[in-house]
Design goal:
Shape: elongated
Largest sheet: none
Number of domains: 1
Number of helices: 3
Number of strands: 0
Strand content: under 5%
Radius of gyration: 14 Å
Order of helices and strands: HHH
Distance between the termini: 22 Å
Length: 73
């Protein structure tokens, strides 16, 4: 598994959990403020698509996860 796949998996998990905790119709609703975290994850994915800067990817590389380098720097 490489950094790109791990970033996608973690982002997907964060979005699903934050929607479950933030949607009023959810059986595990805690607070609507969890939807702000969903916006943060979406914004980070969007900016990393344009700038090729992803904080999680940097952490994963330092932890030794293989990097694919799909962005040219």
């Amino acid at each position: 598994m490489n950094t790109e796949r791990v970033v996608r998996i973690v982002a997907g998990i964060f979005v699903l959990v934050s929607v479950l905790l933030g949607a009023p119709a959810s059986p595990v609703f805690v607070s609507g403020w969890f939807l702000a975290f969903t916006l943060f994850v979406g914004f980070n994915l969007l900016q990393s698509g344009f700038s090729c800067f992803c904080p999680l990817e940097n952490v994963l590389v330092r932890m030794g996860v293989p990097d694919v380098r799909t962005c040219r720097k």
